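Take a careful look at the protein record below. Let me know whether the structure tokens fit the sequence:
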Amino acid sequence: MAIAHGVRSREVIRVVAPHLDAEAEARKLEDREASDDGLVVMPGAVELVSAIPQGRWGVVTSGTRRLASARLRLAGVPTPEVLVAADDVSHGKPHPEPYLKGAERLGLKPEECLVIEDAPAGIQAAHAAGMKVVGFASTYREELLAEADAVISAFSKLSLVLEENGLQVNVK
């Protein structure tokens, strides 16, 4: 399980069960996860994204578009204009492709982006894309996210200030 979070399911299945049909197993897993009504929303997550104007933020996930859309809906998180999912890229995290595609769809240069990431593979992907990263200690402990530029344990540790030339993010 240590390699699973933040990496596309089919890639994990290929590593841990190479004798199985990774695509078929990933679909079965997605079916279960997409209907999970026991989803726990991190306190402050909805407030955080609601404070950022639409078109200025997006979701880049190792999950499929179907899974990401279902989880956002179940969590009550507004659907972003930009959603880059596992099915949108040739290479998943830790490759930079997902984050580079997210920046492109937002119309931003990578160095203008700030990533909030909860997995080491995602931190590596964001840095490889040339982005700053705030690690969010939830699935992984803070020390496992040490490659991030900053690590927080709660969204309340972030403050956002909308400025004329962009969004200023401060870590408390």
Summary: The beta strands are 58-60, 82-84, 114-117, 132-136, 150-152, 158-163, 166-171.
